[in-house]
Amino acid sequence: MTEIRLYAFLYTVWNTVVSDQDRRADLCIHLLLEPEFFESRFSHWCPMVRAYYMRLLCWRMGRYDGEDSDGEIQILETLMDRLRSVYSHYMYLREEAERKNQLLPSSVPCNPAPGRRILIIRTDTQVAPGGTFLSFDSIRSQNVLNKFTAQRRPSTTSHLTDDELRPTTSQSSISSLDFEPEPGKKKWGLFRNLMSSPKARSKSQSVGRQPASPTPSTPPSGSSSLTKTPTNDPQASAERQPMPPPHRNFSFKFSLEYVDKRVTERGGNMRIFPPRLPKPAQQYLQTRSARAHLPFEHRPIKPEGQAVSSSRYSGRALAEWAIIVGECQTFFERRKVEGVPGNKWVETPTLGVEVFRKPG
């Protein structure tokens, strides 16, 4: 439990510890990825130690968000070399067992505790940094944008193209135009907009349904942003680009949950493939590493030293690593589908040590 708490502590304070590049390289290469230490922890006999150590490697050391640094390549290359070393030991044990007609090394992934799995769950206890009504702001801005587009399109469809129908004002200017509070009634305007009060709705409709003047006239100074801007203006073209969809940051954590035994059954041994890093780090390593274009042969290597005793669990460890990397990639893809603009803004679930308790 002390070792598990140490991994959870390093996972929590990781950004502070690795803020210095020299300290980051010393922690990763000379401690966590030191050959004997890596062999003994990655293929540890305790599934809980393996689970915490692998999540520290995957979500912290192996996470790449596009920020290049001098020591990033060296750390990722070292991590890949250690994973390939475990895979080579597993291949040797497997071929040795087949040659001697013995029981093959197990490749069944283990749960951290009997009947319990570490799952990523969302927690709503974190207060939004923008204020209590951050969720209402995103809904309000999107509704205002849709209402503004719907009001302008019927009267200008026959004269404007699709590019010209795109609103040239920001959401803040649209909001101030359609929902300008009356003098002396500035309080509770947000709640009136959410409840679609008759005053706000009638006022917004009156703005969108103003009759067109038969003779050309000079537009007022406050409505210059709604006029058609010439297409040769680069600044106006940039303003007409569609805005990125709004998204919210949530709080996630790894939780040790009881699950149905029928769900945890994985169907025996998994087929072990050469291990990989999380997808962004793997792609970065393939494009920037000097060794990426060199052919690598996965050949069996006889375990020596510390790996002699720990390599018997190498098959289970490699299967669990594949599950953790797949879980990480699935989480990233789901969050980007939900509106997160890039990997840099995807949340990192927190990791803590939970007390082992029986249900009830």
Outline:
The chain is mainly alpha-helical and 360 residues long. It has a domain at 2-111 and 262-329.
Order of helices and strands: HHHHHHEHHHHHHEHHHH
Report the β-strand fraction as a percent range: under 5%
Any idea what the shape is?
Answer: globular
Could you say which structural class the secondary elements and strand pairing correspond to?
A: mainly alpha
Integer average pLDDT: 75
Instruction: Tell me which oligomeric state these chains represent.
Output: single chain
Proportion of residues in helical segments: 40-55%
Over all CA atoms, what is the radius of gyration?
29 Å
User: Main β-sheet, in a few words?
Assistant: 2 strands, antiparallel
Q: Which parts are unreliable, with pLDDT below 50 for 5 consecutive residues or more? A: 126-142, 152-181, 187-192, 194-231
Biased composition (Low complexity): 220-231
Biased composition (Polar residues): 147-159, 167-176
Region (Disordered): 147-181, 197-250
InterPro entries: UPF0592
